[in-house]
Amino acid sequence: MRYNNLDRTAVYGRLVEATKAYSGFDFRQKLNAARVAGFSVPIADTLVYNWAAKKIDDDIVALLQELANEQELTAKYRALLDGEVMNTGENRKVLHQLLRGQLGKDVVADGKNIGEFYRKELLRFSSFADDVRSGRIQGSTGKKFGYVVQIGIGGSDLGPRALYIALENWALKEGITPAIKAKFISNVDPDDASAVLNSVQLGETLFVLVSKSGTTQETLANELFVKDKLLKAGLDASRHIVAVTSETSPLAHNSTYLDSFYIDDFIGGRYSSSSSVGGVVLSLAFGPAVFKEFLAGAHEADRGALEPDIRRNAAMLDALIGVWERNFLGLPYTAVLPYSQALSRFPAHLQQLDMESNGKRVNRDGEPVSYATGPVVFGEPGTNGQHSFYQLLHQGTDIVPLQFIGFNESQLDDDVVVDGSTSMTKLKANLAAQIVAFAKGQDDINPNKQFTGGRPSSLVYGKRLTPRVLGSLLAHFENKVMFQGFVWNLNSFDQEGVQLGKILTKKVLSGNSGDDALDAYSKLLGC
Amino acid sequence: MRYNNLDRTAVYGRLVEATKAYSGFDFRQKLNAARVAGFSVPIADTLVYNWAAKKIDDDIVALLQELANEQELTAKYRALLDGEVMNTGENRKVLHQLLRGQLGKDVVADGKNIGEFYRKELLRFSSFADDVRSGRIQGSTGKKFGYVVQIGIGGSDLGPRALYIALENWALKEGITPAIKAKFISNVDPDDASAVLNSVQLGETLFVLVSKSGTTQETLANELFVKDKLLKAGLDASRHIVAVTSETSPLAHNSTYLDSFYIDDFIGGRYSSSSSVGGVVLSLAFGPAVFKEFLAGAHEADRGALEPDIRRNAAMLDALIGVWERNFLGLPYTAVLPYSQALSRFPAHLQQLDMESNGKRVNRDGEPVSYATGPVVFGEPGTNGQHSFYQLLHQGTDIVPLQFIGFNESQLDDDVVVDGSTSMTKLKANLAAQIVAFAKGQDDINPNKQFTGGRPSSLVYGKRLTPRVLGSLLAHFENKVMFQGFVWNLNSFDQEGVQLGKILTKKVLSGNSGDDALDAYSKLLGC
């Protein structure tokens, strides 16, 4: 397999050349019903990617297909699935797709079949969740657990939290019982843990302590914060905390936890929602069957991402269109805009997934690249965003590519008819209207009311946001980010950029920072 | 007064010229204790803006002062305070600062003294809040109100919500009673209203219906959603809803509401947190005295923003440094990074404030400008973000200017010592470390572990996040955005960019969109 920088590919120059013709790209002429109907690719049975409102025509699709072929995207994905070391800097395999099902060879490391290990942990925490939900496992007060509080940060927080919020109302509607409420403590700001603990019944709370390394400063501080409160409440902490960590971590095999579930170094934090990092809390909250549905949906999208024809591979096409926009049209951001209140924290998770994976200035061999890599990703749910930052998206001086997400049905199916339409219909009408407004704009004699249009978007849509659909949705974006990393020739699976801050923080806390500016800032803040 | 485009100012060319010298700007040499100590400007007694880690030296400050003078920033601010029509497109005055106190002449419109009107409404809703909090006003069940639910979107949601979250734990610590819990319904997605109503006791809930125009689609739909639920619960809606609107709106003077409080067209939605839009819900939740403290803090920052010397005017300096970064260093985004869990939704509010105000491509006279205006604004609280998108901020191919916010003390004062330091000290040590890490970077023989540094940030800091400090903080950013609008010669107070989507939505809902692509999207989504 060949690892090559984007700007050393044969097709690169032709893509640069092709941008010239695209200043004249006119959605008012191009975007019609036939294009909308024809530019859809399934992500999974239940979810579709539509790219009709992207600034792209057949000629560019053909060049992007060449780029996909030249960068060997499918072969690299297959190699990753087969267990090749794709996280080169840290000398690790990358196996989050294996958590959802096996698409490649058996992966063996240190004599251990990794797929079997993942399946065993899934069984173990499923069984544990069943025991908690049925009341067979209880807290030290002899009461059933009514709350689960995840203690973790970054990948141990954003993904699981976004997924929990995405399914909370769905589970209510489906009548899933018992209703165990999940909460999350992440920040080292003590007000975070304190406020969460003020909102639960401590005696009925099970804590899930999540740190792969077992050394995360925030998480260890919050663990002791919680243990201190349990102690003061006269509760036995060892019956209120389970650990999710790697087997080599200082937290592993510790009998002072009620139980422990394991991941390994082949699961990156931001890719860990499908592991016990997301699985324990979601299985406790909704039951293991729900989490397995989520995994099945993700697995289906993973399988679809193997297709080499980019017109039939939504994740790969989405990735390549993103590269087209970033490197050739020169657009440095992407807005994620779900028209679904349930996905209110999904943009924050994608922000981590994307920016932490591909926010890199050196390639996988450590050489600086001379082209732009990962964009800034941000977003809020629609229609809320329409009354906020959409002003800039419509009429700002710069163009921001948009990624819309929408569903045919609400989750709770609790609605009202006003002026002849339900709120759900209004929500969808707004979404359709925005796509066309951004693309086509509108002329007006008053320049302040003029919309230039030409602002590209894509739409991911499905029938209803269920666990299965959510799995497909998450896997779609994970695979998109992976393919972009391959195009840019990055290692998308490490995060060296987070290290320096940790080192300097330790120096401040040790009282010997070795830098007078750092001391001065510490003094301002009263460290 | 002269209104002039940025690139037609006399100093513009010299600022362009000056950028050449700045490629060699080296924080490792420049950023020392003296610079950190010397580059602070008070925003108010209790809050400070520090710009030591911005890529700027005396020569640029001098040019920016010239720019401030040439664009007559102070004179324009004074004119705004005195009631000149600054929202030219809509022919409206801009008077949100007057909500906090009077700094200019008496402002009279249609024979009415506007300051008196604002003070009267403040008195009215303060008295109403006292009556609700004391139990003199009760719901139709004869129970005290224990919940207040704001129904509003955009400016009627993001600011009040961010401020409520910012003070919720402070109020708990201060023992403010009764503890009336606030919730917010914004999205037209019916799952939003449904989930919020599932989380309250309807008989003990007071709704605050907020729409200046009284025609906001989402808010009217949610009003009927709520009324339908009140009816079904056998409750008298007219004793559970108050309206906040303008006196000319269809919602005004309507006896089917328990009471009504008024704003006017001189208060833009995103600037309305200081009006009854924010005041009613915050006074109900925390008592009117707390809201008045907030206003006092904002007023103090408004007064400080009158200073013409940019070295002594934090809002103006912050604004001009932003222009330096956006137009001369060419950086198209800003990240807002509060090291305070209480400010978790403050970035979402600033995102609206900034992007809706200055995301414009035509100047105040409707002529297209040929320079960049408002940046993309995004952010999440630290330390959470450190484990997420900071990778890109540290090692991405592009530079993102950073706006840190931090405090000496936590709000709840509930903490734990781990490894010799409290969580609050760890939080602050992380913040100090990040500023220096971004600025100075670090060499490493392994390019993957190298940090180029040169990534600029500013720091807003104070002792503790109290209502007064929160007021100063909000006003600082409002005034910053206002000054940037003056520099760019924009009308920062309208939002024509949100109109087209509304028009097309109505067309979809009427069944006659007149655009086959729009019909096709509506069909995909099942409208």
Low-pLDDT ranges of chain A: none
User: If interface size is counted as residues with C-beta under 8 Å from the partner's C-beta, which chains form the largest one?
Assistant: A-B, 157 and 158 residues
Number of beta strands of chain A: 17
- Residue-averaged pLDDT of chain A: 97
> Could you describe the largest sheet of chain A, including whether it forms a barrel?
6 strands, mixed
CATH class of the largest domain in chain A: Alpha Beta
Q: What is the CA-atom radius of gyration of chain A, in angstroms?
A: 24 Å
Report what the structure shows.
The structure is a homodimer of 527-residue chains. The first copy, chain A, is globular and about 70 Å long. In chain A, α4 crosses α12. The longest helix of chain A is centred in the last third of the chain and has 22 residues. The first copy, chain A, starts with 11 loop residues before the first helix and ends with a helix. Chain A is built from 18 helices and 17 strands. Chain A is 43% helix and 13% strand. Chains A and B meet through α3, α7, α8, α9 and α13 of A and α3, α7, α8, α9 and α13 of B.
